[in-house]
Amino acid sequence: MSTEGQEYVIAPWGEGDCETTVVTVDLPSRDLAAQLEVPTDVLDRMAQLSDEYDIPVTEALAERLEINRARISLSAAKSVDDVAAVQQHLTDAREYLSGVETLDTADLEDDIEHIWTNELGSA
Q1: What is the 3-state secondary structure (H, E, C) of 67-99?
Q2: Residue with the larger pLDDT of the pair 60 and 12
Q3: pTM for this predicted structure
């Protein structure tokens, strides 16, 4: 995967400056590698996930990013009324989750399935 021309920044939270580290992660759902500037405290939390699941820190970070992207798509699906838009947001959420191999995504997958079958099934 190439990082050429791809730049993502995870902005620091809160006020003031914080120490950051540049890392490169693979985002499988989009078949790309991204170079990220990440606050050190975020990397510390990813290190805890890394230890818990016995995966590299960069993989933990990439999977959290994919999960967060799926959550945003799921939230967007819940906020629109147009069936085609809901379907697109749910499809995007599923695509992001396809990049997650280790971390738990059952709750998101259940939410997506619920909307797809129970709410879109009657549309």
Answers
A1: HHHHHHHHHHHHHCCCHHHHHHHHHHHHHHHCC
A2: 60
A3: 0.82
Longest dimension (CA), the chain: 50
Residues 6+ apart with CB under 8 A from 70: 92, 93, 94, 96, 97, 100, 105, 108
Mean pLDDT value of segment 106-119: 92
**Tokens linked to 14:** 């809160």
Identify each DSSP E strand in 1-123 by its residue range: 7-9, 20-27, 32-39
Alpha carbon distance 27, 81 (integer Å):
30
Cα–Cα distance, 33 to 94 (Å, whole number): 19
Which amino acid is located at 58 in the chain?
A: T
- Return the closest-CA partner of residue 43 out of 72, 10, 68, 14: 10
Q: Put residue 54 in one of left, alpha, beta given phi > 0 → left and psi -120 to 50 → alpha.
A: left
- 52-106 pLDDT tens trace: 999 999 999 999 999 999 999 999 999 998 999 999 999 999 999 998 999 999 9
